[in-house]
Automatic annotation (TrEMBL):
Species in which this protein is naturally found: Nosocomiicoccus massiliensis
Location of the protein in the cell: Cell membrane
Protein name: RDD family protein
Residues annotated as transmembrane: 20-48, 60-82
Source organism superkingdom: Bacteria
Parts forming coiled coils: none
Length: 169
């Protein structure tokens, strides 16, 4: 028997996350990632003697590649396994499927890899979309078919075969 957690959202009276809260959560995430870079990545690359080596046509420093991989892994893994990054946890918000069910790995990849890559390639301007639509969705949310909601939303477990609600949390 398959079970899924369902998140009641805006249509049922549970608001999407505030734009300022999302921004503050993202700033916390950037501070976390900067700290990992300073405390772990740079010292390890320095000890290995590859800190300033260039790769890919001798144009891109290896540290830039490692930092980018850690950045995307952080967002992909935290969002997939917990529905939230450390910043989102602190501010009580989480990412959910716009359909109301738990995120699929494909949704997370589309949101965090493709959506964020395109957003960053466009100088982060697509984040401004959050200000101009009812569900406060950025380009990465549209691409991943996701919403960021207040974590205080009601969660309940559904028996998928019978569509029977097990219990409100």
């Amino acid at each position: 028997m398959k079970r899924e957690t369902v998140f009641l959202q805006k249509e049922m009276g549970y608001p999407v996350a505030d734009t300022l809260i999302r921004l503050l959560a993202y700033i916390v995430d950037l501070i976390v990632l900067w700290s990992v870079r300073q405390i772990a990545i740079i010292p390890i690359l320095t000890m290995l003697g590859v800190m300033n080596q260039n790769v890919i046509f001798d144009a891109i420093p290896i540290r830039s590649i490692v930092v980018a991989v850690v950045f995307f892994l952080y967002f992909v893994l935290m969002t997939y396994f917990f529905g939230q990054t450390l910043g989102k946890m602190i501010f009580g918000i989480r990412v959910v499927s716009s359909k109301g069910y738990e995120l699929t790995f494909a949704q997370v990849l589309y949101r965090e890899l493709i959506g964020r890559y395109i957003t960053q390639a466009l100088l982060n301007l697509p984040y401004l979309m959050i200000l101009f639509n009812e569900n406060r969705m950025g380009l990465h949310d549209f691409i991943g078919d996701t919403l960021v909601v207040n974590r205080k939303e009601v969660e309940y477990t559904v028996d998928v075969e019978t569509n029977r609600k097990e219990g409100l949390v």
